[in-house]
């Protein structure tokens, strides 16, 4: 797989249906969220609209909240063992149109269209010996591996990539996605196949097959791998074959999960580069959970929301909004449209953790051009405190004077000097779980 063929030269920014709609999102809801993004967020770099799991299931949400995924459900399929959108939920997909009409609509707004899939082939197809396109009579049962399954979703068998017809199957589904106009594919149960703790990277060959299918299909697509936590010892393989890979399991609005992300980001900080984005997962902001039986506001405090955005942006994680976009309040919208903060995704490089204790963390990165330095201060503790870092710790240019810009507050602050002998420090008084983000410009 040639890296030049990859998409995602900067961290992808978009919206995903899962956190609000669960498995049951409809075409009307996708269109509504796409319109909102085009009208209010696109100018700030947000561009992907992603339909998450179970879009081929006409009965999705039928058993919620008792059961998330309907057992032994019958997907909508074409004659070649390939899932197609359920027309009762996506009316424009009827008569073989698939997702093309919806993707065309998203593209008409100047946005990009994405979908979620589970790795493998539907069990229904394997049990019924349905054919695979591009083969000489090979059927789904011949490539399915009944000993490779997900522990949390029973829809699929893994594909045995040693079998004739395996690559043809993946080629066929990605050729279909290319016809539809898909720009982004999130593949699940593949980054960490956590059914098998002794071999959590057991789908390695399926990752390679999918990457080859994307290259063959002729359309640029972002390849995102889930769930995590990804294995740092497999970083070279992930960098070679994917654009994004989850470094955590599903991330929700709980402080303990957010605090844990600081360690995860430290582990992965050297693997962030053009086309290679360790993924901190979605942003559970705003209105969440309607498809999980109870709509609610995010449980993150305003300070925690800013901390999450600060860490994701200085680390340069992909950003995927989980909220129902039309219901965004002004505070959440402001959080997602701060151009000075979002600039770190495209204008910074080399992010690294400077120090971390139980209660304090500091990150820094450098501007791609010029001598500016970005610095993030975090209060990880449960009480208000002052967080500071020295010029020496930040490795500022000796003898230089730096102007200081508060990126969240859009305000200029007191300059700091890195002259030898001066004990210059960048400091901020922060509420519990709070943060500050600065740009230091060398004068």
Distinct helical segment count:
14
Mean residue pLDDT: 96
Residue ranges: pLDDT <50 for 5 or more in a row? none
Number of β-strand runs: 21
Radius of gyration: 23 Å
- Give the termini distance in whole angstroms: 44 Å
Estimated share of beta-strand residues: 15-25%
- Within the largest sheet, what's the order of strands? 10-9-8-7-3-2-1-13
What helical percentage do the residues reach?
A: 25-40%
Shape: elongated
- Main pleated sheet: 8 strands, parallel
| Class by alpha and beta content | alpha/beta
Overview of the molecule:
The protein is α/β, with parallel strands linked by helices and 443 residues long. 27% of the residues lie in helices and 23% in strands. It has helices at 18-21, 27-41, 100-108, 123-128, 140-143, 166-180, 204-217, 235-241, 255-268, 302-315, 330-336, 339-342, 344-347, 391-394; strands at residues 13-16, 48-51, 112-118, 121-122, 144-145, 156-159, 184-188, 222-225, 244-246, 277-279, 287-288, 296-297, 319-321, 348-356, 360-367, 373-379, 385-390, 401-406, 411-417, 425-430, 435-442. The chain has an 8-stranded parallel beta sheet. Strands 14-15-16-21-18-19 form a 6-stranded antiparallel beta sheet. Helix 6 crosses helix 7 (204-217) and helix 9 (255-268) runs parallel beside helix 10. The two termini are 44 Å apart. The model has no long low-confidence stretch (mean pLDDT 96).
